[in-house]
Structure formats: C-alpha cells, structure tokens
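Bench notes, afternoon.
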Amino acid sequence: MQTAFINAERNYTEVPDLSKFFAHTHDVYELYFFISGDGKYFVEGTIYPMKPNDLLIMKKAETHALIINSKQPYERIVINFNAEAVFREVRDKLCAFLDNRPLGRNNKYSHTLLKNTNWDYYLNKICTAKTLAQKRLYLTTLLSELAETDNTDNEQRAVKDDFAEILGFINENLTKLLSLEQICARFYISRAQLNRRFKKMTGQTAWEYISTKRLILAKELLKSGEAPTKVYAKCGYNEYCSFFRAYKAKFSVSPKDERK
C-alpha cells in the first residue's frame, strides 16, 4: 500500500509568462482552482474559458496547461494527491468518479456553483492544514461534494482544439507499436511541424510526450499487480530492457520494485 500523498500550494504570479506554463501530465490526480488572471485552460485538446473561482479536476495522465491571454496577475490553488489520500471507506467511489471520464471531458466546475458550496473553504483548508490527517479530511469531503454535482453544462462552452485529434490518436494507440511516421501520415503533417507543435504546448518532443504517457500507464499496471515482463509489451515497448531503462530514469525505481 502506498503512503497517502497530498501536495497543496497557493501561488501568485505578478507577470505571467506563457513560455513557463507548458502542458504537462502527472501520475497523480489534480485539483486546480483559478482565483484570478486572464487565461483559458487546455485539457487533452479541450479548451475551457476560465473565470475567477472556476475549478478543474484532472485525473492521472490527463495532459493540461494554462494558456495566458494577457499579463494580468495570476493566482491559483493547485492540489496534487494520490488515491491513498482519500479515506478508504469512499476511495473506490471517488477514484471511479475521477477516473471514469473520457480524457478532456467534464473537467470544469463553474464559479457559478460556488455560491451554494464551500469548495473554496475546503481548498484553502487543504493548503493550510498542519497535518496530513486534516488535509485528507478536507480533500475527501470536497471530492464527495464534487462527485454529487452535475457539471455537464460546462461542456457546451468548451472548445475543441485541433491538437485534440492528435492527442486522441496517441491515447488510443499507446499500447500499440506507434511511430511518429504513423502520426504524421494520419494527420498530413511533417515530423518537424509535429515536434514544433508539441514543443510549443508541452515543452517536449512528440516522442518524449508519448514515452511519458506510456510510463504513467505502466506505473498503474504495475501498482495493480501485473508482472513487469507483461507490462512492457502492453505499453508499446518492443524490449523489456528499453522499458526498464526508461522506467528507472523516469521514476527512479525499477519496474520490479514498483510492483512490490
């Protein structure tokens, strides 16, 4: 059993710089609370316009980034946590709520919902609580309330970026023998153009992005008890040795030790 993990920060940026807000992905969950600024949020190719007190949820391996519209001061709360941070009694239910969404769908909870909730109170308490037990209490309570709230109306205001098609194709083929040539041929784009687009959005090349997504998938399979010698093939690797090296470099632990 992993140890409960919660990292919560309230951050303020006086003059935001777009070049410092790359799209990224985690092997943990994220809650993102937009306090002030001028921007929109990109999640797996879906773009959500953001207003103060809008709240976003991201599951593991869901690519996301802020897109700055202007240099207005930017403030936010970001909370990352693993499944073990949620109380055991409701863990399966709440992790299913977080996980059982298509990538880039139903991420946003509008600021208009805030007047009837205590979400901002819970978010601030998670940031300021002195003990892990207190943080877990506020986090579990907040997730329970979010799980009971209908946020589907926000999808009508979301916009699909054309980059979403490329990300969708990659996500659908992570477990297969995927190559950059296949992606370029599928979307009529050169390798240089593909990498420029990925560099702009994620700070990584297309292949670095694919490798990150595959390794996060591998981590989940290993944690569920699957053998490393089976996992590597399920994550698009031809050889176990190349998978082993990549996994150790990414997570500083071997696939065998991760499974333990």
